[in-house]
UniProtKB/TrEMBL annotation:
Recorded superkingdom: Eukaryota
Pfam families: FBA_2
Residue intervals of the Sdz-33 F-box domain: 197-257
Coiled coil: none
Protein name per Swiss-Prot or TrEMBL: FBA_2 domain-containing protein
Length: 326
């Protein structure tokens, strides 16, 4: 893989393209790393992939997810994140914990690891990587930023890491545009304005995956289109949210999901609503782009109306509260 005079390059131009078009897509992507020429040839094929992700876990992985439920995984030890090392390439089937190795492809030093993501984005005609999955506080956020060439990604998922200052540094260093998933509030009480600035971003999805008590004000100042959380809220708190939404708060909200605790009888107190029959099912299509479940069925519920005529359905099922615009 280090030889710039790869045998395929000795063929006439049209024959090179003919051979490339008859390769499997994972072989085409792997071949693109051989040289600048091979990269340009593969780029001309205008290949389509589902997702490009940087996964920081037990090692550093760069995943190219294909549409046939298989992935190419480029990996190298996390201890070598700032130094030169071999990059190992494997092909997998499935996702996450259910991922199954199909084959080892090769090891290569043909490309600098800090240029690999930008190379893949260029070859696959994508503006940037789609996702960073950060779950190892021993890797400095600046090193992660270097791997994506300082570019903005669509999705930033920060798993539970300690110490908290590492999460703060990650939020400050890594740039994201559409989705933030986070498991805890990384700021002290006297730094609440910093947390507010995150909640007020114009995101597609904000997922707060903590069970810790959270004030309803954190929801009320959110400017995301989807807000999902594991937090528990009372009927009184959610009643306040609904009443404020009806007069104009959370205007970008399309979907809000949380847990509801205690008696739900007071949820719609003082609110005009229409009951939706239980045999009526509406489906909300989430803006998720990296997870398989993208359609959320809502059965029955109560329809309420905002002062501008916008309608939403409120549903309560087994301790779960859903608020959806249709």
């Amino acid at each position: 893989m280090n030889n710039p005079y790869f045998p395929l390059h000795s063929l006439p131009e049209n024959e090179i393209l003919h051979v490339l078009r008859n390769m499997e897509i994972y072989d085409q992507i792997a071949y693109s790393i051989c040289s600048a020429k091979s990269g340009e040839k593969v780029r001309s094929l205008k290949l389509k992939v589902d997702l490009i992700s940087l996964i920081v876990l037990f090692d550093i992985r760069i995943e190219v997810r294909l549409f046939d439920n298989t992935s190419l995984l480029f990996s190298f030890p996390k201890l070598n994140v700032d130094s030169h090392s071999n990059i190992h390439l494997e092909r997998y089937e499935g996702e996450d914990l259910e991922r199954r190795k199909l084959e080892d492809l090769w090891n290569t030093e043909a490309i600098d690891k800090n240029k690999l993501i930008s190379h893949l984005c260029k070859v696959l005609n994508r503006p940037c990587a789609d996702k960073i999955y950060y779950c190892d506080p021993t890797i400095p956020p600046k090193s992660i930023s270097t791997l994506v060439q300082g570019q903005e990604v669509k999705i930033l998922s920060i798993m539970p890491v300690r110490p908290q200052h590492r999460i703060r540094a990650t939020l400050k260093t890594l740039r994201y545009s559409s989705v933030l998933r986070i498991f805890s509030v990384p700021f002290e009480k006297n730094e609440y304005t910093k947390w507010m600035s995150i909640l007020m971003q114009n995101l597609d999805i904000f997922s707060f995956l903590s069970d810790d008590p959270t004030p309803i004000d954190d929801v009320l100042i959110s400017n995301s289109q989807e807000f999902t959380t594991r937090c528990l809220f009372t009927s009184k708190q959610l009643n306040r949210f609904l009443k404020l939404w009806m007069v104009g708060s959370n205007r970008r909200f399309e979907y809000f999901s949380c847990k509801i605790t205690g008696d739900s009888d007071g949820l719609l107190k003082g609110i005009e609503f229409e009951r939706v029959p239980m045999d009526s099912t509406k489906v909300y299509k989430s803006k998720l782009v990296d997870l398989p479940i993208q359609e959320i069925p809502i059965k029955g519920g109560f329809q309420i109306t905002r002062n501008d005529g916008t309608k939403a359905v409120v549903s309560i099922r087994t301790g779960k509260f859903d608020f959806v615009l249709f």
